Automatic annotation (TrEMBL):
Its cofactor is Mg(2+). It is an enzyme of class 3 (hydrolase). This is dITP/XTP pyrophosphatase. Binds 1 Mg(2+) ion per subunit. It comes from the Bacteria. InterPro entries: dITP/XTP_pyrophosphatase, ITPase-like_fam, RdgB/HAM1. The keyword DNA damage does not apply. Substrate binds at T8, N9, N10, K11, G12, K13, S71, F153, G154, Y155, D156, K176, H181, R182. Keywords: Hydrolase, Magnesium, Metal-binding, Nucleotide metabolism, Nucleotide-binding. It comes from Sporosarcina oncorhynchi.
């Protein structure tokens, strides 16, 4: 069975990747499936820097090809925040619910027209004997006034996607993958790296 290792501890991302990879006959493993605990410090100031950092460090530790994902939400009325700090916007403990509250509070009194936002995702692929490569994707939408739906993770309950006319958290994982920043970045990866897809079979 073909397998790909995603250098993430985020179970929500893992589900997104499963929906994207499983139809291709590729199973997804993440850092949560390993016995050792690996948590790379994200010291970069861009999604790209952090994605490369996570991919290269985990690949070096395990000696296999890995994909890392660095992603986040940019809200225009908040000058692009939370951006690269999306996971810890409301505090170091990474609390999705508190992060959502902080975004909603920051947008108090902001009209529907001015609530534009986007998700961004950079995927970095790193492995022994290969140059690290990156692929990016984005997904435009706007921030709702209240939570809607229970699927997904992070800011999905308050992110409205005009393409699907629903909140991201109201979409199935498959539907999310069709329009998401992660789906778009992975589509790039697949298009440009058919060779790499073959080598996923050797990564275990
Ligand atoms: O509603 C959302 N739907 C998404 O599809 C999504 N993608 C990213 N995000 C937010 O951005 C942070 C990433 O930060 P991040 O890339 O550092 O990941 P992380 O720290 O959660 O896990 P890891 O991969 O680093 O182990 C996440 O925690 C979320 O708050 C999303 N929110
Ligand atoms: Mg992180």
């Amino acid at each position: 069975m073909k397998q790909v290792l995603i250098a993430t501890n985020n179970k929500g991302k893992a589900k997104d990747f499963e929906a994207l990879f499983n139809p291709l006959g590729v199973t997804v493993m993440t850092l949560n499936d390993l016995e050792e605990t690996i948590d790379v410090e994200e010291t970069g100031t861009t999604f790209e820097e952090n994605a490369i950092l996570k991919a290269e460090e985990v690949s070096k530790l395990l000696g296999v090809i890995v994909i890392a994902d660095d992603s986040g939400l940019e809200v225009d009325a908040l000058d692009g925040a939370p951006g690269v700090y999306s996971a810890r916007y409301a505090g170091l403990e990474k609390n999705d619910d508190a992060n959502i509250d902080k975004v909603l509070e920051g947008l108090t009194g902001v009209s529907d027209e001015e609530r534009t936002a986007r998700f961004r995702c950079v995927l970095a692929v790193a492995g022994p004997e290969m140059e690290t490569v990156t692929f990016s994707g984005s997904c435009e939408g706007s921030i709702l006034h209240d939570r809607r739906g229970t699927n997904g993770f992070g800011y999905d309950p308050i992110f409205y996607t005009p393409i699907k006319e629903r909140a991201m958290a109201e979409l199935s994982a498959i539907e999310k993958g069709e329009i998401s920043h992660r789906g778009a970045a992975l589509a790039q990866l697949k298009e440009h790296l058919p060779k790499l897809m073959e080598s996923f079979g050797a990564s275990r």
